[in-house]
Amino acid sequence: MKIALDLRRIGNPGIGRYMRCLTEALLSVAPEHEYLLILPPDRQEILDGRGARVEKFAPELKYYSIREQMELPRILRRHRVDLLHSPHFNLPLVCPCPRVVTIHDVIYLACPGDLGSSLGRYYYKAMMYAAVRLADRIITDSNFSRDQIRRFLKTDRGVEVIYPAVDPGFQSVSDPARLQEVQARFGITHDYILYAGIFKPRKNHAGLLRAFRRFLDLGGDATLVIAGPMKEGEEQLRSVARGLKIDDRVVFTGFVDDSELPALYSGARLYACPSLYEGFGFTVLEAMACGVPVVSSAESSLPEVGGEAALYADARDANDFGEALCRAFTDLTLRRALVETGYGNVRRFDWRKTALQTLAVYQQAVSAPVEQVVCA
Fold first, then answer.
1. Over 90: is that where the pLDDT of 336 sits?
2. Which residue has better confidence, 187 or 157?
3. Facing residues of 100 across strands?
4. Starting from the edge strand earliest in sequence, which strands make up the sheet with 223-227, in order?
5. pLDDT digits (tens, 9 = 90+) for 86-116
6. Rounded CA gap, 63 and 44, in Å?
7. Is the separation of the CB atoms in 355 and 29 below 8 Å?
8. What is the value of pTM for the model shown?
């Protein structure tokens, strides 16, 4: 079978890491297949494909464009592709082969305030609706996301839940020099609580700042490190921090490169995830893989992913979440238990298993009756 993977967003944080890890696992477990990797021009070396029958193709093709809708079917036909997998929700509307789509979440339908542009929301909704109706098979990351897809996209189609896993690069860093190097780079000089992620209302950064104020009032002694690109949100959060009189205790790192993230996680005394909506919640697993205790919101997919290895609290209640932070920061017995169960929880998720389950979905798609496939 010749499988095409649309990896044009492989350079993006989050989704790009998923694309890379899944593709590497597919090439490893099923080298007997042929692969066409559709990559952005500046990311052709991100996957080497050694030991597998791999062809790379890097068209100058803008995402979410009319031109991609015209060119992708031609590319697939020219390369005689048997199946297309889009590990993002964007699919060609007509296609010469069966299509598999991964819809990781429906965040901009469930949380429309996270996407400021009304035109962007309209396009997102239209492409989501098209994906669930045109794809031969649909994959998602969690049972929570499956239920959300059915609710917001009004479909009773089968949606296959295939858990992703943690990037193998996320492991505990114990080298003191490396830990100090990364902390010094970001101006971190004390024990710290970490939260990593982009700025969006659903991420609940302001709620974490209020919970951190409660943590300090209870006698906690730490810095709060907020990692990730904040853009215009940083000044909003700095204003909240000033109002809470904790601005001297908060560090904003901005974007953190993947090469530095494991050390930033590993140096933290605690990882906090106050998010109100996650399709999967990768950062919870990344922190656990780095040996860091986790305090998490109990909303959306987070309990499904964190299992019994996190301390859950109400992230909408600053007192409740702040008290959980204080407990996980100071209670040595609890901390040891969270670290140990965290390592065990991470082992529930495995890229090899993800790849094998994904291949099974591919086989179902190519075996589907011809009338189910919308052709160019």
1. yes
2. 187
3. 85, 137
4. 250-254, 223-227, 192-196, 270-273, 294-297, 311-313
5. 999 889 999 999 999 999 999 989 998 877 7
6. 17
7. yes
8. 0.92
Q: Specify whether the CB–CB gap between 1 and 34 falls below 8 A.
A: yes
Q: In sequence order, what are the beta bridge partners of 6?
A: 38
For residue 32, what are the CA distances in angstroms to 48, 79, 82, 364?
Answer: 16, 17, 14, 18
Count of CA atoms in the C-beta half-sphere (13 A) of 116: 5
The alpha carbon dihedral of 222, 325, 207, 288 has a sign of positive
CB within 8 A of 376, min separation 6: which ones? 73, 77, 94, 95, 96
pLDDT at residue 374 tops 50: no
Flag whether pLDDT at 161 surpasses 90.
yes
Tell me which residue has tokens 């690109």.
229
Per the CB < 8 A criterion, the answer to whether 155 and 186 are in contact is: no
The fold adopted by the segment(s) 2-165+350-372 is Rossmann fold (3.40.50)
Structure tokens at 309: 């290895």
Cβ atoms 26, 107 nearer than 8 A: no
Q: Tell whether domain 176-346 is in CATH 3.40.50.2000.
A: yes
Which residue carries 């350079």 as its tokens? 11
Helices (H), 186-256: 205-217, 233-243
Q: Quick one: how far is CA 325 from the chain centroid? A: 23
User: What is the amino acid identity at position 242?
Assistant: R
- Pick the closest to residue 255 from 185, 193, 172, 169 (CA basis): 185
Locate tokens 């917001």: which residue?
152
Residue with tokens 């209020």: 210
* Rounded distance between C-alpha atoms, residue 341 and residue 318, angstroms: 26
Distance between CA atoms of residues 216 and 181, nearest Å: 27
In the chain, CATH 3.40.50.2000 sits at 2-165+350-372, 176-346
Among 94, 100, 64, smallest CA distance to 82 is for: 100
| Average pLDDT of the chain, as a whole number | 93
